[in-house]
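Summary for the steering committee. One of the milestones for this cycle was to obtain a three-dimensional model of the protein with adenosine monophosphate bound, which we needed before selecting residues for the alanine scan. The sequence and ligand used are listed below.
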Amino acid sequence: MKILLLGSGGRESALAWKIKQSPLTEVLFIAPGNGGTDAYGTNVNIKPTDFEAIDKFVTDNGIDMIVVGNEDPLVAGIYDYFESKPVLVVGPSKAGAALEGSKDFAKDFMTRHNIPTARYRSFTAETIEDGYRFLETLKAPYVLKADGLAAGKGVLIIDSLDEAKKSLKEMLDGMFGGASATVVIEEFLSGIECSVFVLTDGNGGYRVLPVAKDYKRIGEGDTGLNTGGMGAVSPVPFADERFMKLVTDRIIEPTVKGLIADGITYRGFIFLGLINVAGEPMVIEYNVRMGDPETEAVMLRVDSDLVELMQAAALGNLGDLELRHDPRTAVTVMMVSGGYPGSYPKGKVITGTDRVTDSILFHAGTARNADGQLVTSGGRVIAASSYGTSIEDALQRSFKAVELVDFDGKYFRRDIGRDLMQL
Ligand code: AMP
Ligand code: GLY
C-alpha cells in the first residue's frame, strides 16, 4: 500500500515507525513530518489541513490510505472531503470529530448514551448569570472548559469561587477566541488518569490498544504549567482486568454503539481520557486521534500489523483481526527545549542521536538546518522510548538515551511513571 501520514510530532514519528514495519507498506509519505520521520519514509511539505494540496498529492502518487495523526484535519472534515474519492481515510467523519472539537457536544453525547462523566452544564454570554449560579452549586475546585479546540490550553481548574466567576466571564469574552464562546462547567473529579485507545470500524467492530498514562505538567511531581506531554508509560498497573471490564462495558461499548445509533461515521481511533474515581472509570474527555506522547509508548506494545488493522477499520470491517499486546513495559521520556512551555530558542544543534542503540528515538520538534545538521525546531524535541521488564527498568533505559542525546537547554522529567510505581 501507498500510505500518507499527516502530522509532524512525536506521535507521527511513532506511527511512521510502526507503519514502516508492516509488510503491507510499499511506500510511506509523511506530511509535513520532521527531522526524524525521513528515517521511515519521505517527508512532503504539505499542511495537514490543506485538503486540496493533499488531494493532488494523493492523485499524483496513487495513495491508497491517509492516516491522520492530529485532530485539526479531522475536525475540519478531511474524512468527508475524501469520502467519495478512491482513497481510504483512517479517522472519524466531521460529525464524529466533534467529540473532540466541541466539549459541549461530547458531554451531550455521553449524557445521551449514559456514559459516566462529570456532571456539567454549558453556558454562553447570554446565560452567564446562570453560569454564576451553577458555579455556586459546585464545590471547589471549579473546572471550566472552552467548548472548542484551544491547542490543549482550554481547561482551567480554579480554587476560589470568585476567581472561577471572573474566569467564566473572561472566557466568554474571548480568552480563547471563538473556542470559548461556549464554556462547559463541570464537577471536579478526583483520581488518577489514564488514556485508553480504541480502533473502531464504524460497524460495531473495535479493538483496544495498550493502555497508557501521560505526564502533562512541565515540573516533577506534576507541578507547573501544562505541556504537550513530558512522558508516558504503558501498561498502567491500575488498569487491570476488572477496571478494563468496566471501561469496556460502561464506556467503550456505549461509545461505539452510540456513534452508530446517532448515525455518525467513525472509522478510526477513539481516545478515551479516563479518570479512576475510587475504582470506577469516568470520561474526562474524548479525542479523535491517538495521544501524544502516549503513542510513543503504545506503538512499542502493539504486536500486530497496525497497517492491516487500520486498513480494515477504514474499510468498515475489522473482522477477526487480532490486536495483540506486547507484554513488555514501555516508557517514553520527552526531551524539551529550555524555557518550554514558555518561550524557548530554536535551531540548537542536536548531537548523540547516533549513539542510542537500546532505545527508540521519536523525533518531535526537530529539523535539518541549511548544513544538514539536526537542530531543535520546537518545544518538545525528541522522545526516548524503551522496552523494559518494569516501569523502573524501561525508565532507566530511556534515561540512558536521554544522557546520550544533547542540545543546549535540554530538559526532561526524571519522575515519569513514579506515581504508578508507588501504587
Ligand atoms: P482536557 O483538555 O479535557 O483533557 O483537560 C485537561 C486536564 O484537566 C485533564 O487531563 C485533567 O487532568 C483535568 N481535568 C479536566 N476535567 C476535569 C474534571 N472534571 N475533574 C478533574 N480534572 C479535570
Ligand atoms: N496526551 C494527551 C493528548 O494527546 O491530548
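Key point for the committee: The two ends are 44 Å apart (CA to CA).
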